[in-house]
From TrEMBL:
PANTHER family noted in UniProt: LIPOPROTEIN YIAD-RELATED (PTHR30329:SF21), STATOR ELEMENT OF FLAGELLAR MOTOR COMPLEX (PTHR30329)
Membrane-protein topology: Single-pass membrane protein
UniProtKB keywords: Cell membrane, Cell projection, Cilium, Flagellum, Membrane, Transmembrane, Transmembrane helix
Domain called OmpA-like: residue spans: 203-322
SUPFAM superfamilies, per the entry: OmpA-like
CDD domains reported in the protein's UniProt record: OmpA_C-like
Annotated protein name in UniProt: Flagellar motor protein MotB
Length: 335
């Protein structure tokens, strides 16, 4: 007896469970999709760039993207460059020179030759441009220095020209004073008692005593008649000039014979004051008077003869417009 056994139910059970696997795959895929959507929504732009750089970092050893590297670091094991999303085109330049990564083999050198060539060219262009800028800056500085030197030279020349013109004016004034005194018959014999000389500070005019021909009465501050006439001739010329003036009085070394409470200091100061008053009366603006001083016998005209009559004098200094810089003892010394 032949018994035929059929197990149709087993095959139906096997085919009936296949859908579960497909469903599980679908659910897993949906979960991954929603998880991805949640991550995109919950992360910042910087975090998303980090994710992108992790899955596609810059790899200097090959042309294709690689998944190796540190999480969110965007760096490979053999690269020290920045993230792909953050690297500028010239990231290979450091301090104006191209960074030269270490090569592991000749094959790697061949692979990077085309990549290094543009960077080398860019580096050379950068260095050339910097050199040109430096050269232009140097040229500009030299031009500025030359212009400054020219301005200083022109200024110095102008100052020298003005000083020379002022000197010429003072020399003309001195000649006018000499002519005015020499052409007056009453004063011609006093011409030798009038000393005019050029000093660094300007024109110095000195009226000195002579033996038996004083211009100041003995022991008196006011000039005598002859001295007053001589001073007025000088004042008439000085009044025409715009220069400032200084006035000083001087005596010899003979002790003052007047009252006991007076000395050569008092006498020289009084004579300087009397000279100032006469100049102002003759037309010299008082604002031009810069100083009035008595020197006593501290600045002798004839140092080897302290008692000489020429040491008794009054001095008028017509000052150069530039001032009295560097004046040292202009009233002393011989004529």
């Amino acid at each position: 007896m032949i018994v035929i056994r059929r197990e149709e139910a087993g095959e139906e059970g096997h085919h009936g469970g296949a859908w579960k696997i497909a469903y599980a795959d679908f659910v897993t895929a949906m979960m991954a999709f929603f998880l991805l959507m949640w991550l995109i929504n919950a992360t910042t732009d910087a975090q998303r760039r980090g994710l992108a750089d992790y899955f596609a970092p810059t790899n200097i050893l090959g042309r294709a993207a690689s998944g190796s590297g540190e999480p969110f670091g965007g760096r490979t094991m053999n690269s020290s460059r920045n993230l792909a999303g953050e690297s500028p085109p010239s990231s290979g330049l450091q301090n104006g020179l191209a960074a030269a990564p270490q090569r592991s083999s000749e094959k790697d050198d061949d692979l990077d030759t085309e990549e290094a060539a543009p960077r080398t060219t860019a580096t050379l262009r950068y260095l050339v441009s910097q050199a040109q800028l430096a050269g232009q800056s140097s040229v500009d500085q030299q031009a500025a220095a030359a212009m400054a030197g020219q301005r200083q030279s022109a200024s110095a020349e102008d100052a020298a020209a003005r000083a020379q013109a002022a000197r010429t004016t003072l020399m003309q004034a001195a000649e006018e004073i000499r002519s005015s005194v020499g052409n007056d018959p009453q004063l011609a014999d006093l011409a030798r008692q009038l000393i005019l000389d050029q000093v660094p500070e300007g024109l110095r005019i000195q009226i000195v005593d002579a033996e038996r021909q004083p211009v100041f009465a003995a022991g008196q501050a006011a000039p005598n008649g002859r001295g007053r006439a001589l001073l007025m001739r000088v004042a008439n010329v000085v009044a025409k000039l715009p220069n400032a003036v200084e006035i000083s009085g001087h005596t010899d070394s003979t002790p003052f014979r007047g009252a006991t409470d007076r000395s050569n200091w008092d006498l020289s100061s009084d004579r300087a004051g009397a000279t100032r008053r006469l100049l102002v009366e003759s037309g010299v603006n008082e604002d031009r008077v810069r100083g009035v001083a008595g020197r006593a016998d501290r600045e002798l005209l004839v140092p080897e003869r302290p008692a000489d009559a020429a040491n008794r004098r009054t001095s008028i200094l017509v000052i150069m417009p530039e001032g009295r810089a560097g004046r040292t003892g202009a009233e002393g010394g011989s004529p």
